[in-house]
UniProtKB/TrEMBL annotation:
SMART domains on file: AAA
A family per Pfam: Mg_chelatase_C
Source organism of the structure: Pseudomonas abietaniphila
Protein name: Magnesium chelatase family protein
Keywords linked to the UniProt accession: ATP-binding, Nucleotide-binding
Length: 497
């Protein structure tokens, strides 16, 4: 048969749309035409495939060859289609039975020797193949990653000849059986190692319990970074769906094969990071730091040192939980449901307000420094806390404070209450759910409205304040929001007057 069809998958963001590789052999002078909007690496695949087939002592068809990667309007890049193209040529020239390729998808880059090399983005392709009810052929290095899509039949191969023998029925490759990715056991830094800072630890606990955004402000050396690094250890473990999402992002973003089941990510980009580095982008859109922090923590240290235009791009994903990157030819949507933790100094030198009088910054310098952060961005941060300098001596030990394990149990109990009540963390409540689950007594509501007017808080800030009060009630295991919860939540909102 001179026509063969092989199924594969492209990579667009964290999605894996289906691609059909059609191969047609016709009479005429030997040639090879590749169509279907291939990028540079895909155009080069015809040379890799030719050498791999010849070096495996198989026959490369000396005919007029047309290869079509459908759909034609979907850009294709990378070497992930090499294996599908090679199988299409072998099937069209009757070296491999076409029936053996029914219901089979394949991914893999070919070496000139015929060895099959690993590719990026196998997990999204595996999830899509499972949804389609197909078998997936992948490089042996990627097999463990593909098996994260439970219930998928995975065929792991390391050489083209091995796969040809399997398809011809000479030798049978058994479906790959996963050994299970190793659970990361590296512990997070423990909260008990932080000396003092009782108020900051309380804010950290509230942020973890309700998935709230948090801003620490204070002079250098007060433990802002130390506190932020303890937050991932307080968060509940990822459930299966969240873990698969995190693993899929890692699969797309990393050239190295996935080797371990992920924990909640903790990303800490430098303040010199550009906008595309933070939110993603490029001619071929790649995930940025906010996507790599999906279901985890994004820590921005020295917040005012970031370029203001870079920080402003955080406003949309903080509200929506995703980022859409538009290019001339396509639009790519990346998930970005992260928890923002930021730290800043009160002034350029860092010592404004210190009783020692070390600060030499002028009023104008302090105002310009703080004006680097826009009101709309600060409005989206639920908890604002000033971290004061502790007077604990060097001889004091950190023992005796609450450990991460104890605090994490309290956070887990609060999150369980939230999931049973509304199906999500308090920070993600929409307006109808907010009205339903954060109702106040009439006198408390009037008191809150008066407080918001005096502090000049926006309606968004008032809604976020209610969410924090709901989290405080959950930490105390009570159903109704009391005035004490509202009062504590108000302490975390700075006045905008």
């Amino acid at each position: 048969m001179s026509l063969a069809i092989v199924l594969s998958r492209a990579q667009v963001g964290v999605e894996a749309p289906a691609v059909t590789v059609e191969t047609h052999l016709a009479n005429g002078l030997p040639s090879l035409t590749l169509v279907g909007l291939p990028e540079g690496a895909v155009k080069e695949s015809k040379d890799r495939v030719r050498s791999a087939i010849l070096n495996c002592r198989l026959e490369f068809p000396a005919r007029r060859i047309t290869l079509n990667l459908a759909p034609a309007d979907l850009p294709k890049d990378g070497g992930r289609f090499d294996l599908a193209i090679a199988l299409g040529l072998l099937a069209a020239s009757a070296q491999v039975p076409t029936l053996a390729l029914d219901g089979v998808e394949c991914l893999g880059e070919l070496a000139l020797s015929g060895a099959i090399r690993p590719v990026q983005g196998v997990l999204p392709a595996a999830l899509a193949a499972r949804a389609a009810g197909h078998t997936l052929i992948v490089p042996a290095v990627n097999a463990e990653e593909a098996c994260l899509a439970s219930g998928l039949k995975v065929i792991a191969v390391s050489h083209l000849l091995e796969l040809v023998a399997h398809l011809n029925g000479h030798t049978v490759i058994a479906p790959y059986k996963s050994n299970g990715l190793i659970l990361q056991t590296q512990p997070y830094p423990d909260l008990s190692e932080v000396q003092g800072q009782t108020a900051a630890k309380r804010a950290l606990l509230v942020a973890a319990a309700g998935a709230h955004n948090l801003l620490f402000s204070g002079p250098p050396g007060t433990g802002k970074t130390l506190l932020a690094s303890r937050l991932p250890g307080l968060l509940p473990p990822l459930d299966e769906f969240e873990a698969l999402e995190v693993a899929a992002i890692q699969s797309v973003a990393s050239h190295a094969p996935l080797t371990s089941w992920p924990q909640r990510p903790f990303r800490q980009p430098h303040h010199s990071a550009s906008g595309p580095a933070l939110v993603g982008g490029g001619s071929r859109p790649q995930p940025g730091e906010i996507t790599l922090a999906h279901h985890g923590v994004l820590f921005l240290d020295e917040l005012p040192e970031f370029d203001r235009r870079v920080l402003e791009v955080l406003r949309e994903p903080l509200e929506s939980g995703h980022i859409v990157i538009s290019r001339a030819r396509d639009r790519v949507r990346f998930p970005a449901r992260f928890q923002l933790v930021a730290a800043m100094n009160p002034c350029p030198c860092g010592y404004h307000g210190e009783p020692t009088g070390r600060c030499r910054c002028s009023t104008d310098q302090i105002q310009r420094y703080r004006n680097k952060l826009s009101g709309p961005l600060l409005d989206r941060i639920d908890l604002h806390l000033t971290v004061a300098r502790e007077t604990t001596s060097l001889a004091a030990t950190a023992q005796g404070g609450e450990s991460s394990a104890s605090a994490a149990q309290r956070v887990s109990d609060a999150r369980e209450r939230q999931n049973k009540r509304q199906g999500c963390a308090n920070a993600f409540l929409d307006l109808p759910a907010l009205r339903q689950h954060c109702a106040l007594l009439a006198e408390d509501e009037a008191w809150l409205e008066t407080a918001c007017e005096r502090l000049n808080l926006s309606l968004r800030a008032a809604h976020r304040l209610l969410k924090v009060a709901r989290t405080l009630a959950d930490l105390e295991n009570v159903d109704a929001i009391a005035r004490s919860h509202i009062a504590e939540a108000l302490q975390y909102r700075p006045s905008t007057s």
